[in-house]
């Protein structure tokens, strides 16, 4: 399944990720791309269930210090 998830960077700016996920045994494996003006940032991980993917993605964004491009707006990103 693929969906669009919004998270917040350390400065309070919203980021949009295109997330693909599937159940693998008792875990959910997910892969996300955060679209930016200059680069696309790939992330991946596992979660206990589909409902905890957004929290796992948010933790990755904060852990790795991923921030929105200056002047980026959520409306700059295509709808999934």
Description:
The protein has 80 residues and is mainly beta. The protein has one helix and four strands, in the order ββββα. The protein has a four-stranded antiparallel β-sheet with strand order 1-2-3-4. β3 (27-35) and β4 (40-47) form a beta hairpin. 19% of the residues are buried.
Fraction of helical residues: 10-25%
**Percent range for β-strand residues:** 35-45%
Q: What gap, in angstroms, lies between the N and C termini?
A: 11 Å
Which structural class fits the helix and strand makeup?
A: mainly beta
Quick rundown:
By secondary structure, the chain is mainly beta. The chain has one helix at residues 53-63, and strands spanning 2-8, 14-24, 27-35, 40-47.
Helix and strand arrangement:
Layout: E1 2-8, E2 14-24, E3 27-35, E4 40-47, H1 53-63
Antiparallel strand pairs: 1-2, 2-3, 3-4
What labels describe this entry?
single chain; 80 residues; mainly beta; 4-stranded antiparallel beta sheet; 1 helix; 4 strands; elongated
């Amino acid at each position: 399944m693929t969906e669009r998830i919004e998270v917040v960077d350390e400065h309070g700016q919203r980021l949009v990720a295109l997330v693909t996920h599937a159940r693998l045994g008792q875990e959910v494996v997910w892969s996300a791309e955060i679209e930016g003006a200059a680069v696309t940032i790939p992330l991946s991980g596992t979660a206990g269930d589909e409902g905890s993917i957004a929290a796992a993605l948010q933790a990755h964004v904060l852990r790795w210090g991923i921030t929105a491009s200056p002047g980026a707006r959520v409306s700059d990103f295509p709808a999934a």
